[in-house]
Amino acid sequence: MEYISLIDFLQHFETTRVIAFLKEMNAGELIHNPVFLGITAALALLALFMKWRVLLATIVSVTGFVGLISYTLQQETSLTAMTDNTLIVFVIGGVAIVSVVIYLLFIKTD
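RE: above sequence
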């Protein structure tokens, strides 16, 4: 009996259902929600004060990349021209986010 309910529960994680959920969620709109940004900032400050560097690096990297991708997609970036300003912003922003994560995880000591 319990085995069947476990199988039923795991069927919620089928790839097609997960992809449909992610499409419905629309992370690009979530990054512009002030409540989401406030909660994320509060969690980042809590992680900073409690010195939870892994959590802080995770929050900074996920939020930063979602914001950067959202910005880039809104500007309708063209990959045909390598001098596109939005593409340059994406590359520089990505390097900055990766640098912050490397600093938080590997360089900074208490």
